[in-house]
Structures
1.
Amino acid sequence: MTLALASLLLPLGTALLMLLLRLRSGIWVIAASLGSLLCAGLALHEVIEQGVQTLAIGGWRTPLGIRFELSSLTAVLLVFTAMTHLLVAIYAQHSRHSHARNTDYWPLSGLLHASLAALWLSRDLFNWYVTLELLGLVAVAMIILSGPRAHAPALRYLLLSLAASLCYLLGVALLYGRYGVLDLDLLAQASEADHSTRMALLLMTVGLMLKAALWPLHLWLPAAHSSAPTAVSALLSALVVKGPLFILWLLWSRVAPVDMTESAGLLFALAGIVALLAGGWAALRTPLLKTLVAYSTVAQLGYALLALGLLLRWQQSELSVALWLFVLAHGLAKVSMFLAAGEMQATLGSKRVASLKGATQTMPVAMFAFAVAGGSLIGLPPSGGFVAKWVLLQPLLLEPIHWPWALGVLLGTLASAAYVFRVVALSFDRADATPPDYDPDPFAQWLALLPAIAVWGLALFSQPLILWLSEASG
Amino acid sequence: MPATELLLDITLGVLLLILAGAALHGTRLYTGIISFIAFGLLLALVWARLGAPDLALAEAAIGAGLTGVLLLSALGRHADEPAQPGSAVRTLATLLLGVLVLILLLRAVLPLAQGPQPLPALVNSQLEASGVSHPVTAVLLNFRAWDTLLELLVLLLAVLGVRQLQPAGRPRPGVWPLLQAWSRILAPLSVIIGGYLLWRGSHAPGGAFQAGALLAAGVVMLRLAGLLPLLRWENGLLRLLVLVGVALFLTVAAAGAWFGAGWLNYPAHWSGALIVLIEVAATLSIAASLSLLVVGERQELGR
């Protein structure tokens, strides 16, 4: 547990020091992310050796105090968060257009890292509210970095995020009034299917779905994520929307009474299928490159929502493995896609998808990164996306009665293939290639390729990963 | 309950509703803001009537006072907009939706009166060990200190977020001699009352947030009267003030984890002193952050 705390404290302390001393160099954040990654890795090792650990903060046991729990899933998420931050920090330090030079980008990214770590570790409903506030504010502050054009989407995001926070808080208040405790495990033991609990869960679900941009409450996401600076878009899509999803998953799989989960599960699963199709369709139609990538986030979150819904409907906890595999695979692929898209957009001088004409010739590495990451989003074997889809499909294919859901997954796959190939096909049109405004930056392109390779490497690593994730979900 | 008290409560409740409606549906932004401030003050009274003086103080200082000032200063930067006539359909739809939500919420809230509430008794039984004698302070700074630490970070992020917007300075109105004279009298009072609230927090309603808000009010007044120099983030001392609360809190927490019994675990005989120390630092940070939010500027424009 000390190691997990260190993984939280390193970026937080670094951010505060950078603010105080006005340090403007990314080296500090890179070092802190590296240290945090090491600590998180060791914490994961500790959990595998010794099992789940809990910490009563301040020595106060629940229900009086707040409890941290370090399960193998939490440890994996800590590693994932630190790794993503490390990659993005190296990119932002190197890239010419990351808006990191004369802004507060570095301390803000440290604070984002710490907020996420606090969220993964906590198991207390009110403490989660505070971490959600932190996440929302830091995300908005980072979107604004790209200048006055981002103000309108950032403000919309802020207002919706505040409304979502209030919904969540009202739900927490209702649950506290009904059961008198805030700890997740204590609530799980006490919860009953009465009117107050239903209302509380409804309110919290609406708030969390809005924050996680789950269909149909996703409308703020494309504008907000595509108007942010490239490095920030990558962090937002890979990490920030996953925080509320984590709370939603714990809330429904642990606290919600069984007779409520069945009907809610159906709704979640249907929303997931619609998200896959609607997000995919919007990504296929949009003229702007970063908006395409952002809509693909909306679509990919559909898989997570589908896994959550089916998990609740059939009470099959193995499906949470699929959920978290989707989150990890999508996170890595999306970092790669946003970095590649941002790099190409800045070098080719246009935000439009059409400007990628001939990009395989002008910026081959970035385009390769985009295609490789896209392959994982589609679910081509043997990528991380494929492993996740395989785990999800296995229980669906076993019984003929579940085949309609498998058809939904298939349609979603088709949609993602369509928008990925839309870009890839265009980039092979070398006859009339868009000339780059200045020399493409090979190092930044290779950096964009790194997470894409990692997501394909995830497949080699999938056996222990599935084992750890299933231990956490049991 | 005596009839006069009932009458007071009913009046307060009805006034709250009217003011909330005026704040939301006023035709001019200025009217809306003034109604909102009045709403906050009345809400503070309602909290006091409900026996929650801590909430009442926080609501009056932060909900009505500082939020009101922030809204007014935002209005000052905003170009005048023509009054929008309210549409009847919209008002009707709002009303309908409001009533529907109200019914749903009432059905959820009413059964809560019988719910188990183990925590207040538990807090009181552990009060001895917490180092302070006021239960709210014990919860905020000992039992659930992690929440409070993160809340201080939320405030820091609010300041950082506003900083990213890079608001332009604006011309100050001419300083009014009476304002200067009054603020010279009121500012020391805000320091005294703020300090008193802070000190009181360890055994009675009060504490860092309320005290910080009062101090900030004093700073804002002095700044508006032109008696203080520009508050700029570039000023190292000011940054130190903004960060000292979180930094000290984190240091205590980490020291507990390193040398003592655990993360955020105060040593047994030191908890009272440590809590007061953290509260002082947090008050300074809150005051500095709130002042920066209201009157912090990069540069002053000419008149």
Note: The two ends of chain A are 21 Å apart (CA to CA).
2.
Amino acid sequence: MSIEPILTIRGLEKSFADNDVLRGIDLDVMPGDCIAILGASGSGKSTFLRCLNFMEIPTGGEITHAGTTIGTARAGKPRHYPETELTQVRQKVGMVFQQFNLFPHMTVLGNVTEGLRTVQRMDKSSAETSARAELTRVGLAEKADEYPSRLSGGQKQRVAIARALALAPDLMLFDEPTSALDPELVGEVLNVIRGIADEGRTMMLVTHEVGFAYHVANRVIFMADGIIQEIGPPEQVLKNPQNARTQAFLARHKQFEF
Amino acid sequence: MDYVWDFGSVYEYRAALWVGLINTLRIFGICLFAGLSLGLAMGLARYSIRRWLRWPAACFIEFFRNTPVLVQIFWFYFAFPILAPFEISALMAAALGITLNSAAFSAEIFRGGIQSIDPGQWEAGRAIGMRYREIMARIILPQAVRRMMPALTNRGIEIFKMTTLASAIAYADLLHQARLIASVNFNPIEAYTVVALAFFVILYPIVRVTYVLERRMAKGD
Amino acid sequence: MYEWDFSAVLDNSDLLWQGLVGTLTITGTALAFGLPLGLLLALSRLSPSRWLAWPAGFVIEFFRTTPPLVQLFWFFFALPILMDIQMTPFLAAAITFSIQSSAFFAEVFRAGIVSIERGQWEAARAIGMQRPQAMRRIILPQAVKRMIPAFTERSIELMKTTTLVATVSYADLLYQANELAQKTFRPIEVFTVTALIYFVVIFGLSLCVQGIERRLAVSGDSTVR
């Protein structure tokens, strides 16, 4: 019996007004995958990731999650995506943002329990038990009662990771999780992400950290002009790129040591 | 119940409404001009380096911002004539109240606008040998007025709405005339509806303009 | 030279106190109905459904751009004919100022809601919340905090506007002052004292607002106008 992909992406398109940002993307995300997405700014890599939990609504193509194709087809028009269906998918596809987006009016614990309590209707004590377990995983158990404004950028991002993990997603999306951080805080966040990858969780991450992609990802995607230019194991894409655009991009990142 | 609307009875008295509209515009014009001019003077005084100018201006602004304009109008209409050596008409009393009130509010707009200009502009003015008065008139105010346009337009709209208060002391403005027509004809529904619509039709286009101004401010500059 | 004589005011001060109570009663009533109605109008205006957004927008714009005194006269003189109800000065004032202030409060709510960063909506949706849940749990609690100064300022404006009820014989502070002035023939003293009472109450409130604003500014939270 073959293993079923978590996500099957076919012909994915997204355009804003008359600007085509994604121009047909195909990808199968298998359980245990850790996929790093590289590309210059404007290549569409963030939009691609944001389409996968419907922060952006695709304007073409299909996304199949755990065997169910999301949305309903309409003749001559893009698929229709009902809000109730999307809220289901988003609970299974967690997302971590560049700007953390913690809820400033809630404590750290409140941030992590919010999805469990409000969306999944879990009772208070069970929600807090699982939230504390996630906070322990990201090394912030002792900060549970602090407000986000009292945390460093690195700590905020780790709370955001715990918030996403709390819903037990089967796929985690990281959208440039370290780009808004001071350089000395990048390491602690990357360590947490690596720990999650080592547990065998499925994840996709958009990043500028080529070295991190090389060591942690099992597949690397290089994107430009809204399509996947090259995909393969990190050894191949990062050390021996075939595509001219990939070569040019990596030449500008030569300062990274593998 | 089914009410039969009859705007004909209002139309018959259109001459009276016309008089009211002219009177409304008259008191509006007076208060807009006098209120903004006095407001600018008060705003400058409030920002002055001289304490003997700053303090009285601050008291004036706070007093008139923090009392209801109708109380001010009543004061000028019922109390002031006893003190004043001359006759006070309803127009004068209402215009005094609305003008002083508007001056206090627009003074704060002028002050905010002037203070929002980067101190570097003052320094640049002084660096080429300009004096306070010249810098204020040639450098600061022209920039500040642009920024203050939305707030000043809003103030103008408020003044226009405020003019209806003059009817409370029997000044023959639009609302007062409508009240007369309603009591003669027993048609308050039509009379007041017409007046409400008149205000909406006059003011709403100006409101739209302030939205455009605000959006343009938010975008650039 | 005019001889000031405040004894007539002092002897009848209970009349003015009753008036102040009347003013506070109508202000409180208008607040109690105006705030929830304002929130409802703001949510409707921000709704993706045009059927809600348009009428709400019209109500807000209409009541913001017509003079409150015209509205008061309309509700006091015209509404009872249309609806066959017993209209009292208090009822007319309560209806007028509830709706009128709700139109202004709606704009305060709206400004607060749209001031919340997009990322907060996205984070809420990313953990599976629907729009109403995100609004209630994430957006509104943050927005309301930013709106506090604008709310208080609007409430002060409301209290000043309630003086209009005197023109339909509701016994607020200004109405009582007018009665007293006619009874005692001492309009200067009566209206001066009345202006001072309003000043003390309203200036006291605006000092509180400034204090709150300063506290919020210190804690680094932004506010909206």
Note: Chain A has a mean pLDDT of 92.
